[in-house]
Amino acid sequence: MRERLVVTLVAMTVGMIAIFGVVRAYSTADLVKNQERESVSEAADLVSVAVAARGTENVTRSFLDQLTQDGQTLTYMAADGTRISTRTVPRDDDDISATRPVADTGSRIILTQEAAVSAGRVSDAMWSLVLVGLGLAVLAAVIGWLLAKRFAHPFHQLAIDATRIGEGHFDTPVHHSNMREAAELGDALRSAAGQLDVLVRRERNLAVVASHELRTPITALRLSLEDLTLWPETPPTVADELHHGLTQVDRLSSVVTALLEGGNDRRLDRASTVDLAIVAVDAAKRWSARAKAAGREIVVIPCADPAMVRAGREAVDAVADILIENALLHGSGTVTIEIFRDNTHFRFRVHDEGTQVIEPGVLHASPEGDGAGLTDAATRAESLGGFIGVSDLPTTLVSLFLPRADRQRRASDAVR
């Protein structure tokens, strides 16, 4: 937009300067020629007086040469027809001539100025005009660029705001402008952001409720089956059947996840693929200063393989922040972040050395909750297709379970 405004303003200015320059060139050429005619006429008057003062009988060519300037010729016509001239070049139709009688002698003089002299002076005047025109064009370009920058600035700010709103930041403060068109566009953008925010919140709440109602019994069933496989009283054959049952439960969980998503392409806040290993490193960097101020340390155990999940990066970051903040506020000692991989899920584990005070098991989401702490983390996790689990250990270990991207993709393909 800025470039178009600059080009338009400069083109209009150059066009007006060109039209003005052509008219001004013709008038300047005529003015210079008139000045040259007046100059030749005045010089002819002076030459006539000089010849009369010298006496017609004493007029010689050398005397006439002294009365002329470069580009001028002088011809003396005596009363008896005698002709003395300084001319050495042929006469041109555009030469400027002035004829004056010599007082009371019957003779006359003809002063002629060559056309090249007048053309040179017209050319000098034209060059000055061209330089002024170029200067005005450059000045117009600079002023046009400044004006275009000022006019385009509100729309550039609105474009940035629209990009952030499109990325899901519906609370982005839209810039205000005194320009009427930009102000109307900003109002429309605020209205659209508000409506999108309502739609996304409604969709997210629906997903949370549906996820809670469907996944909670599946998760409870899985934990029970997994617990049974660990019992020493469970016979190996039964344990094998339980493992088979766990596989079917995981498959059912993946199918439910795929159905709840309803296809990422139709989601307003559609997810992308996120590497939990990178999330862990970035989260540790964000909280390291606060941990250091409290005399504690955050350690990330490197993950050999990528831990890819399908989720919004900001949503995963938010859950990670809640888990780390919970460990710093309510735990003690070193906070360790580690990524584990099982058959269907990745576990984002946050472990501290404080005594376990949270009841082990799955933390349930609460869409109508206060939106704080681990409850908020559970709500966010279930909206992502995962859940928050607390391990039964002497120390605190809270894990974010998220479905593996590869298994989730297979389940989605199977549903389709």
UniProtKB/TrEMBL annotation:
- Listed EC numbers: 2.7.13.3
An example molecular function term from Gene Ontology annotations? ATP binding
Localization recorded for this chain is:
Cell membrane
Question: How does it sit in the bilayer?
Answer: Multi-pass membrane protein
User: Which keywords does this Swiss-Prot/TrEMBL entry list?
Assistant: ATP-binding, Cell membrane, Kinase, Membrane, Nucleotide-binding, Phosphoprotein, Transferase, Transmembrane, Transmembrane helix, Two-component regulatory system
Gene Ontology CC annotation, any one? plasma membrane
One Pfam annotation reads HisKA
Q: Output the CDD domains linked to this UniProt entry.
A: HisKA
- InterPro entries (alphabetical): 2C_sensor_his_kinase, HAMP_dom, HATPase_C_sf, His_kinase_dom, HisK_dim/P_dom, HisK_dim/P_sf
**Catalytic reaction equation(s):** ATP + protein L-histidine = ADP + protein N-phospho-L-histidine
User: Could you list the residue ranges forming a coiled coil in this record?
Assistant: none
Enzyme superclass (EC): transferase
Q: What is this protein called?
A: histidine kinase
